[in-house]
Structure to design on (423 residues):
């Protein structure tokens, strides 16, 4: 059934104007309120009571709940509670999100009212509706649901509370707590839902990983180098990697002892690609090929895209600006990624700057010679590339922040051996 059909049904049930009902439904659905919840909300608004929609929820084990379950009643331990604000019909509305568990399994939830949910407590939730969230069932409960302390506490084989290392965070996580060092932070002005707003963005680190973060309601404790505990953050995907979101509901406490930073995570290419992206990783492999579009290139002065024969895909014929980059195919036997080196790293590999490249191209009357010089230098060699990996419809791209020959490069090893023999 689409919204129109739902509106038609509901309007005739309640004896009110269909258009009005439809607008009400659309408004709620736009804010991710499940359709059943939205209809019940409108029934209450127009005084229509429960109506014939509900089939009477049955008590369910979490493991048995699927996206077709409709309405259910569950008894479960609250594992985590995250708080978030959404704007709904012009008003800010506080919702709670997190995970619940019983002996059979765990499930995510969204509570559309501020119910008394506390990590570790066992509660019985009556008349929760099940909807699909990223392909998995999720419990939704609101005005038409009940949340009561359970008679008997459940003992569940899952960790209560939201404390996690950065490496354990996944997009979609909510109500998480982290202890981190602020590696980088800057203030930015964005065009938010209340007009121009200042936010903080940067990088957080702990021993396990580094991840980008955004603080939508700047906390002054998040200053560069500070070690802090941040409670109640949620995680979204940003360019293929998990990004930590700090909100007005998050609490930030300075820690007495500094949080140590680990190095970048070393991963096999297959694992990094399989994760759908990774922030600040180190990948080691052989450079199989330096792709077209490397060496001396031209970028559109408007948008920065690389131009082909003076043409920008977006802006047509433009007077391109010279730049240097390398797109190198890296392979470790498990998978391949394209490592993208910006101007600074390219200059290191090329052994010269933009002016040298221009001169070389002028002498040869062909700018491809710059890429050829880079090919001679790196193709066939084994390298360690540090950077941020994103995986999308354009492939697996590693935006490099460092590029160096592998210590255990066979050629380097052979050279070292020869040096030893010579000695
Ligand atoms: Zn352009």
């Amino acid at each position: 059934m689409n919204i129109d059909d739902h509106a038609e049904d509901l309007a005739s049930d309640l004896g009110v104007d269909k258009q009005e009902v439809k607008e009400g439904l659309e408004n709620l659905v736009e804010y991710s309120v499940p359709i059943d919840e939205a209809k019940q909300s409108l029934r209450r608004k127009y005084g229509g009571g429960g109506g014939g929609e509900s089939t009477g929820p049955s008590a369910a084990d979490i493991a048995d709940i699927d996206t077709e379950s409709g309405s259910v009643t569950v008894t479960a331990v609250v594992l985590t509670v995250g708080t978030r604000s959404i704007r709904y019909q012009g008003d800010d509305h506080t919702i709670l999100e997190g995970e619940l568990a019983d002996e059979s399994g765990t499930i995510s939830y969204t509570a559309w009212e501020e119910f008394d949910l506390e990590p570790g407590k066992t509660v019985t939730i009556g008349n929760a509706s099940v909807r699909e969230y990223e392909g998995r069932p999720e419990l939704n409960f609101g005005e038409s649901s009940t949340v009561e302390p359970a008679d008997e506490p459940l003992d569940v084989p899952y960790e209560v509370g939201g404390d996690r290392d950065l490496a354990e965070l996944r997009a979609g996580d909510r109500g998480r707590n982290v202890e981190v060092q602020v590696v980088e932070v800057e203030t930015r002005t964005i065009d938010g839902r209340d007009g121009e707003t200042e936010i903080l963005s940067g990088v957080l680190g702990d021993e396990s990983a580094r991840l980008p973060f955004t603080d939508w309601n700047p906390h002054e404790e998040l200053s560069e180098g500070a070690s802090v505990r941040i409670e109640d953050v949620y995680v979204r995907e940003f360019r293929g990697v998990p990004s930590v979101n700090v909100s007005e509901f998050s609490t930030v406490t300075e820690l007495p002892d500094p949080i140590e930073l680990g190095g970048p995570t070393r991963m096999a290419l297959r694992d990094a690609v399989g994760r759908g992206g990774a922030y600040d990783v180190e990948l080691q492999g052989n450079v199989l090929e330096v792709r077209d579009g490397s060496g001396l290139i031209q970028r559109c002065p408007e948008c920065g895209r690389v131009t082909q024969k003076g043409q920008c895909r977006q802006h047509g014929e433009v007077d391109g600006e010279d730049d240097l980059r390398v797109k190198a195919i890296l392979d470790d036997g498990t998978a391949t990624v394209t490592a993208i080196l910006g101007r600074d790293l390219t200059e290191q590999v090329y052994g010269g700057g933009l002016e040298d490249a221009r001169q070389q191209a002028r002498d040869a009357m062909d700018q491809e010679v710059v890429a050829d010089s880079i090919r001679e230098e790196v193709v066939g060699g084994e390298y360690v590339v540090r950077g941020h990996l994103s995986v999308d419809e354009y492939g697996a791209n590693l935006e490099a922040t460092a590029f160096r020959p592998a210590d255990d490069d066979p050629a380097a090893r052979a050279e070292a051996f020869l040096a030893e023999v010579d000695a």
